[in-house]
Write a structure and sequence with these properties.
G-patch domain-containing protein, 1% strand, DUF4187, 337 residues, G_patch_dom, nucleic acid binding, two-stranded antiparallel sheet, 53% helix, mainly alpha
Length: 337
């Protein structure tokens, strides 16, 4: 009878313990069993090299960063740590702040201060750089100054571009008005010559009036005197350049006293030159004062003089029979658009 329990215990010991069985990786075990001695030595050497190789600074920093992020992502008030248990023993409750609460009323009966106590510990913020605490504020200040300076430069550039366009537009308008001033001067000169021809009798000039070719410069109206003077200067310069290449005897306006008039007519020479008798070096205060006026003011004076003297509209390009000038829309260029 006593041997029966012993036999049962031996039988149960011989049976497999399926609860504590471990299953090996058949693929790795098969590979390990089938590897040769040389392959086994290489594998062990490779594993030993991996275990014995020290980690680089980058790998250590990465592991440290990973551990730190895992710790920061967890709650700061873990109920399982000893610090929380000590605080709980002193009366701390989760979701409340430490220290005494501010009084709701003061001694004079007024309301108390705002409860700005922290409900959680101050979070940990790691600094990647090695700069000081105030370095970030200094960098932000410099960055803000650079942005403001860049914005100011862009604004100034836009203003300068706008001023440049306005200046270009103004220069174009002034250049256009200068051309209109010269055109109005030519119209005044032409109409004045027509009046001189009308004053002649039977094609003969009026004895009381000097011929145009001997008319002094100051006798010309100041409104178109600059045109006459500029023409005389251009003619003088042309003749001076011509004299550099041509001798006096070959000039077409040279008159030989021994040459007969028939020969002179055959050669197309004139006995007199139709030119304005001017002294270009003489000071002309009246002309200088007129030249100092603005281009728009010069044009306005010329247009007004044409209308008053000859009933001529510079913008219509026609002469009216009377001073009413019916049909003319106005005195400015904008009125004729």
């Amino acid at each position: 009878m006593g041997s029966q329990p012993d036999a049962e215990a031996g039988a149960s010991a011989d049976e497999d313990d399926y609860m504590n069985m471990t299953f090996e990786d058949t693929a790795s075990s098969a590979t390990t069993k089938n590897e040769t001695l040389t392959q086994r030595k290489k594998r062990l050497a490779r594993e030993a090299e991996i275990k014995g190789r020290p980690k680089s600074k980058a790998e250590l920093a990465q592991e440290e960063r990973k551990k730190r992020e895992e710790a920061l992502n967890t709650t700061t008030l873990d109920t399982s740590n000893r610090g929380f248990k000590m605080m709980a023993a002193l009366g701390y409750k989760p979701g409340t702040a430490l220290g005494a609460a501010p009084r709701t009323t003061t001694a004079d009966g007024s309301g108390g201060g705002k409860d700005d106590r922290l409900l959680e510990p101050i979070g940990l913020e790691m600094r990647e750089s090695r700069s000081g605490i105030g370095a970030d504020a200094e960098k932000k200040r410099k960055f803000r100054e650079e942005v403001e300076a860049r914005q100011e430069a862009d604004k100034k550039r836009k203003v300068e571009a706008g001023e440049f366009r306005e200046r270009q537009q103004k220069e174009r308008e002034e250049k256009k008005m200068e051309g209109q001033v010269w055109a109005a001067m030519k119209v005044c000169e032409r109409l004045d010559e027509e009046d001189d021809l009308e004053q002649s009798v039977d094609g003969k000039p009026d004895p009381a009036q000097k011929p145009r070719r001997s008319k002094p410069l100051k006798a010309v109206n100041v409104l178109w005197r600059g045109l006459v003077k500029q023409r005389a200067i251009n003619e003088r310069d042309r003749r001076m350049r011509y004299d550099l290449y041509q001798s006096l005897s070959r000039r077409p306006d040279y008159i030989d006293p021994d040459e007969e008039k028939e020969d002179q007519m055959a050669m197309g020479k004139k006995t007199e030159l139709e030119e304005v008798d001017v002294d270009l070096d003489e000071e002309d205060e009246e002309l200088n004062e007129f030249e100092t006026l603005e281009v728009s003011e010069k044009l306005s004076k010329l247009v007004e003089y044409l209308r008053e003297r000859w009933h001529y509209c510079f913008w219509c390009k026609c002469r009216y029979p009377d001073d009413k000038m019916e049909g003319c829309p106005g005195t400015t260029e904008e009125d004729h658009d």
